[in-house]
Amino acid sequence: MAITVPRSTLGLCSVSSSSNLRQQRTSSLKHRLTSVKSVTSTTPPPSSGVQRRRKNNDENEATVGKVVENPYSKVEAARPDLRKSLSDFLEEARGFVGDGGGQPRWFSPLECGAQGQGSPLLLFIPGIDGTGLGLIRHHKKLGEVFDIWCLHIPVSDRTPAEDLVKLIEKTVKSQHHRFPNRPIYLVGESIGACLALDVAARNPDIDLSLILVNPATHVNNFISQPLSGMLNALPDGIPTLLEDIFNFQVTYSNNLDALSNNFFGQQMGGVGGGMLRDILAVSTNLPTLGRMLPKDTLLWKLEMLKSAIASVNCHIYSVRAETLILMSGRDQWLLNEEDIDIYSRTLPKCIVRKLDDNGQFPLLEDGVDLVTIIKCTSFYRRGKSHDHITDYIMPTTYELKQQCRLVVASTSPVMLSTLKDGTIVRSLEGLPSEGPVLYVGYHMLLGFDLIPMVTQLMKERNIHLRGLAHPMFFLNLQDSLVDMKMFDKYKMMGGVPVSNFSIYKLLREKAHVLLYPGGVREAFHRKGEEYKLFWPERSEFVRVASKFGAKIVPFGVVGVDDICEIVLDSNDQRKIPILKDLMEMATNIAGNIREGDESELGNQDIYLPGIIPKIPGRFYFYFGKPIETAGKEKELKDKEKAHELYLQVKSEVEQCVAYLKMKRESDPYRHLLPRMLYQATHGWASEIPTFHL
């Protein structure tokens, strides 16, 4: 049976249609082709459109590999984010609305066709609109790390929720049979989230990962009952009526789109411009909205919604899949925060992310980037569990700017390095280009040094540091007193939970690894302990570095005392009962990776120090001369020899810190005002001078 091809700007090519029809459609829409997968029988082999897409993937495999498979061998110059708008969604939905009906089927946009080898399958299950285009703003980025299939449910389709679950389940089982060692992601929005939960409940032995966007947990009768009554009272043919009243034509709509892009994009910009563009997009596409959700379809969806919610509530305890719930702060119709709290406690591995400023359809709104959220929650994997090294996805240019713009702009970091002949230069020229390299240094209060250092190395030398961080930064606690989003930057920038195995694995992959031997004790130091090293007695990293011939780069950093002052440290907080209890609870949850160490390093308190901010001063980084370990593996197996090298590294870190503390006193631009005046007269992008070397 042939499936009618929708008149979409994306275009759909049916795998069960005749070859002549496919060739005609492919010829007319060859640049915007989307392959469709039948769901009326067993999942068929990929269409010619998919085969062409995979062929292109093979040609670009090396580029994709840098992003997903081996992100530390050579950093890709990240492209600016290319995001579609609500107007694009409505424009492309126009073709889906007029597709002539038929059965539900899967399609895969070709703009999602650049995924790396071994990427997991992502099945998108739409919400009330049923078009399957709900991820349109995210296709480009998602398509680099997932094989995306989207479910399209035609407007006239009346498949019950239970049959849709069976349809999705059939595809899940088929793909699991083909790739049993890869996870399958189910991304469901609203009603689609209910269907995804039902599929997971029916298949507890299949490796699934669920991303539920505003899952429908209940129907607000205060809204739904009047809505049903109003819909029943409306006449049929509303879409045609709207088109006759407003007389919208394609050329007029295109002119308005051009006007919105030119005026709102250039003159307004920002959130305000995006909001006005969305309002204009909706107003120019009222007929499309009317055809997408006519009266009888809306009434059917409301009934299907109630059925889906009832089914989920019965089966929720059977779900074993890991789950990420995205909950809008302004969705009051289908989302109940108390129900989400029950879900988070019932589902065995559940993370809840609240999108405070978003409404009913967050995936189509500004400020929501699904790939960024997946990165920040460590929710991406290609095997049985998430691997912080092999499953890491590089940040894009936009993500880097979001993470570092405030710190870098306010502290104007000075970067110094040492050449092979011992010359100190104001650049990162002295750093090794090829890994493995181990950077060992002093840890600033609260890790303020991490973001400027990682971003500057990436920007200037195309070197991506993989920092070893305390495991507490990778916990996803639901009842934490602190917002866990504050740790997003560590995961975004490539942080890895510190362990001997992590160091071994990173150096084996020839990575540039960042290690702070003082760890939490230095990052949460007390009053009067600025720039004091708290390193373990034994040489932990020297022998593993020598095993892979890694270069060791000692470095120092100063400047934290120029941006804030500690007024309430752990000793002070222990004298306040409430704060003492909070500190002990945080320390117990985080765990002490130095437990059993009787030195000062083992005295690790997890707390938030009380600080008073200052007018920002300046950060200074000094990288010493790289220390070679290649060819010294046998020599450094001797504990005494390894300890000698360990003490040498520690001494050079202390010398780097002392040098910076001395030299910054002669920097005329150490304080914020002189730097602002300099940039006001020389240009805001100009490099600000510093002390003489």
TrEMBL record:
Keywords: Acyltransferase, Transferase. Coiled coil: none annotated. The keyword Transferase applies. Residues 163-241 form the Serine aminopeptidase S33 domain. It comes from the Eukaryota. Pfam families: DAGAT, Hydrolase_4. Residues 21-68 are annotated as: Disordered. InterPro entries: AB_hydrolase_fold (IPR029058), DAGAT (IPR007130), Hydrolase_4 (IPR022742). Belongs to the diacylglycerol acyltransferase family. This is Acyltransferase-like protein At3g26840, chloroplastic isoform X1. It comes from Camelina sativa.
